[in-house]
């Protein structure tokens, strides 16, 4: 009875989100669409809880590849745009200070760059314009979107891309790490996300992801999709600047716990090194600490009768059914994420029995829980309150 009462109170403490947007997915990456400028241009952006800057391709960008949008945003063609510093073709009344702490003031522009772990990077200059999150997926949704989230927002106007950014479907990226210059902070500052902070912080948001899309919701969770009440893990805000780092207390491979005796303290410490263990919606796969590799291999073989491999392999129906569920337990100890094989294994196209394992046990510091770890849960990111809400959900 005490346990049931605790869960009831936890569920009561979570506000149901009243504003939500549909997401789409392509090759393992989840996207949201927004309108930029006047006349409005529809842009498709990666949702990335693992980075803080927002930027998308702008005209002209001759070496930026082909992306989702029929046309790129052009600040010179928008009647509501302003560049942070004076650029040829803009009026003299533009602002004169850089908005982003990471920007470099160089002659007539505030320039910024972003590098990512897998090697991609982009260069951009700061622009401010009207931005509206789209409630749908096509050109007819602009008027319906206007009442919810139209704000003047400062972002990066990309002029150069390298690596995966030149090949991806998305036009750019929406950084969802906590920072005072994020899109969610801008919505909060304009009063769009104001509510009683005793329930949920104004700039909290939840992601409920599926292989084909899902939902993003603001200032609350998607309670109607929850299969059990939402529980709250503690964020480690000491080692990260805005990143959503959880504190791992245990990891299970099927029915075997890798961290449940005194000799495995080093494994728990491995989850906490570097940035710690971050929830990163901009990463498709999951990367566990390299320090666990031998123990993970041994547990995998005991559970499946097969050697663990990160390469493509063939599995019979019987072998598939024996693949373990991975479970990570977070502080304060009763909160967990479960990763079933249908999320961490990817079937080769054509309906064959050939699968690719998308769990890697090779991260040199900490761990990265990507989209395949987050799927099947509604996850509430609340930096101000220092918690990550997790509930199994039908997204």
Automatic annotation (TrEMBL):
Lineage of the organism: Eukaryota, Sar, Stramenopiles, Ochrophyta, Bacillariophyta
UniProt name for this protein: Peptidase A1 domain-containing protein
Keyword annotations from UniProtKB, A to Z: Hydrolase, Membrane, Protease, Signal, Transmembrane, Transmembrane helix
A cellular component term, taken from the record's GO annotations: membrane
Gene Ontology biological process: proteolysis
Residues of the active site: 48, 280
Listed InterPro entries: Aspartic_peptidase_A1 (IPR001461), PEPTIDASE_A1 (IPR033121), Peptidase_aspartic_dom_sf (IPR021109), TAXi_C (IPR032799), TAXi_N (IPR032861)
Organism the protein comes from: Fistulifera solaris (Oleaginous diatom)
Database matches in SUPFAM superfamilies: Acid proteases (SSF50630)
Record domain Peptidase A1: where: 30-391
């Amino acid at each position: 009875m005490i346990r049931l009462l605790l869960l009831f109170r936890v569920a009561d403490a979570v506000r149901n989100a009243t504003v939500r947007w549909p997401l789409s997915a392509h090759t393992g990456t989840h996207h949201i669409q927004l309108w930029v400028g006047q006349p409005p241009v529809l842009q498709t952006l990666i949702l990335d809880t693992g980075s803080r800057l927002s930027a998308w391709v702008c005209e002209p960008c001759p070496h930026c590849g082909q992306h989702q949008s029929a046309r790129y945003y052009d600040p010179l063609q928008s009647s509501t745009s302003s560049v942070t510093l004076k650029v040829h073709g803009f009026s003299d009344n533009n602002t004169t200070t850089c908005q982003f702490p990471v920007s470099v003031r160089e002659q007539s522009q505030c320039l910024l760059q972003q590098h990512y772990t897998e090697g991609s990077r982009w260069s951009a200059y700061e622009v401010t314009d009207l931005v509206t999150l789209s409630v749908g997926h096509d050109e007819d949704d602009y008027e319906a979107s206007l009442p919810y989230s139209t704000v003047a927002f400062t972002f990066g106007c990309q002029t150069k891309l390298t690596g995966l950014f030149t090949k991806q479907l998305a036009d750019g990226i929406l950084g969802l790490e906590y920072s005072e210059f994020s899109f969610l902070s801008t919505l909060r500052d304009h009063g769009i996300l104001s509510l009683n902070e005793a329930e949920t912080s104004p700039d909290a948001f939840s992601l409920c992801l599926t292989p084909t899309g899902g939902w993003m919701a603001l200032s609350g969770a998607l309670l109607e999709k929850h299969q059990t009440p939402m529980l709250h893990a503690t964020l480690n805000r000491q080692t990260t600047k805005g990143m959503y780092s959880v504190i791992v207390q245990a990891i299970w491979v099927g029915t075997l716990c890798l961290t449940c005796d005194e000799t495995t303290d080093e494994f728990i410490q491995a989850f906490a090194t570097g940035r710690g263990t971050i929830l990163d919606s901009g990463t498709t796969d999951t990367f566990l600490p390299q320090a666990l590799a031998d123990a993970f291999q041994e547990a995998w073989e005991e559970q499946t009768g097969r050697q663990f491999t990160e390469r493509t392999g063939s599995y019979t129906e019987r072998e598939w059914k024996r693949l373990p569920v991975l479970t990570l337990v977070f502080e304060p100890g009763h909160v967990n994420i479960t990763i079933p094989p249908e999320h961490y294994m990817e079937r080769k196209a054509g309906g064959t029995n050939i699968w690719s394992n998308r769990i890697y046990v090779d991260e040199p510091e900490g761990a990265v829980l990507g989209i395949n770890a987050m799927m099947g849960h509604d996850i509430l990111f609340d930096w101000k309150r220092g918690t990550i809400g997790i509930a199994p959900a039908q997204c």
